[in-house]
Amino acid sequence: MAIKRNGCEGCADITCGSTKEVLFQDIAKGVNTAYDRVKARGVSAGLFGSTGTCCRHCNMGPCQIIDGVDDMIGVCGATADTVAARNFARIIAAGSAAHTDHAREMVKGFIETAKGNGPHEIKDVDKLKSLAGVFGIETEDREVNDIALELGEAALAEFGRQDDTPVSMLKRAPKKRQAVWKKLGIEPRGVDREVVEMMHRTHMGVDQEYKNIMLQASRCALGDGWGSSMLSTELTDIMFGTPVPRRAIVDLGVLKADQVNVTVHGHEPLLAESLCIAAQDEDILVLAKKAGAKGINLAGVCCTGNEILMRRGIPVAAGFIQQEMALATGAIEAMVVDVQCIMQSVAQVAGNFHTDIITTNYRAKMEGAIHIQFEEDSPLESAKAILKKAIGNYKKRGKFFIPEKSKLDVVVGFSHETINYMLGGRFRSSYRPLNDNIINGRIRGVGAIVGCDNFKLTDEAHEIIARELIRNDVLVLATGCAATALGRAGLVNPEAIKHAGPGLAEVCETVGMPPVLHMGSCVDNSRILIAATEMVKEGGLGDDISDLPAVGTAPLWMSEKAVAIGQYFVASGAQVVFQSLPVTGAKKFNKYLLEDMMGEYGAHWNVAEDPYEIAKMMIAAIDAKREALGINKQRERVLFDMEMRRDMGSNPVGAGCAGPGA
After folding, report:
1. Which DSSP category does 107 fall into?
2. Is pLDDT of 634 > 90?
3. pTM of the complete model beyond 0.85
């Protein structure tokens, strides 16, 4: 059943103006999207398993357990707390595994580049030498590729290490935080080992004490955040260049009528970077012109989009929830996908048009798609084969609709190094100006908005939270699809300082940066860990991440990766606020996550449903940290008035859209 698209019936939850434009076109009438499927399921369907106490870990069940009812325990005797902890820990293990497998491919590609194979090269030599130092690798009087090869091999060994030596990059964390991990016995060893042990311990009849289960869950998540994700981000920067600020566009309108439109969707930058190079190849351009096109137009979707947006300024056409809508334009010749966050429905949607879905990774195939394996030892040849297939579809294009490109652009590229440079320049780069302005109160604190889009809520929730934070002088760091959503909302550019409080606006105007900093894809949350560590090292804001007036949120989380990210932030000492957690059916375990973890980590999970409440909770957490540091000044929270809400409604990207609290 498709949405009835007369007026705004059935699409009040769609906040992006260009998305609505597409869905109102005749060519999109037969397209069944996730919005349709959510409505068809009804409200009750979303409740199944939501409390976390349904156990399917053996074949004696499944067991649906009700906390506090004596005879409502598992067949094996498992309590609600044990079951919820096992389920939650397995979510963390799955999310960590996704980041880890991604990182492993990145390391393998890095090694091939170090050997001189393929079209890529080492671009950031300074960062190469810095990371080599973390691994104890000598760099003086050595060839760049020799250093890179030794680093790549050492990085690959991090995944399969079998002894109890902690992963190398843990030593980048504040000393006090390292001592916390050591005391709790949760220093991650081999990255793969922690995922395997987590899955073993949650097997029927193994670990049956929820606090002990969560110690391993923390170890597993830390192996992701300070291990695989950080490795992926750092090696990607070294190979393709550490991002620097650049302007670009985030909107469906970036598709072009007179070019072969190829969207790149997924998470692995090796594929996207190879396509970028191949799209400029003279032979490929000749083929495109023979087909009647002026060239190849690459556009990103989801986190691959954020990767090439940050490094090349290539526009992002869509975030996670827009992937079907991008296809519904009828203007895309091929959507090239690799791994993670790809809806199976894209093949069905593409079937309405001339578009091919091209899978490229042996791990991720789907019925109705064409598979062209991306070969790491011949990446350029693989990329050319993909583009040739797309070019062949150009003449088959029928009716299509491309929305007018938004006038709102984004400024992206805020890596840790970029922030450091912007604050102090080349010779005096430092986090000192940031720390000083937090201490003197111009900046209240730092809020991270990360994670996914989700059809349960509109992505206007991201905008509401960000506006509330910056209006209250909280600097916002954004990654993943949340960053894309904030770009569509017009908040990821320097002009957005008009929405910021006076202190934050003054600092941003002086430095020349937006009040919302786009820091990359979801794997790049490790950049936030590094930035937080640098703030601690700079001094004046405590001696651990748990002392900082900083808090994170993933308000529209969808992927298991987001829970792994949340846990590695909590285990690193940073508070997080999520919209919901699947643990409410287990009273003691729920209380442990939301309160008792504070005693172990100096941080805990928080939950709030409404985006205004999430922002309020984040500001309160920041103020509590300021109070503990002795730098708090009595300040009222600035609330949205009607003029502010009308300002949101007049945003040309989200015009005419209802949202929470509207």
Report:
1. H
2. no
3. yes
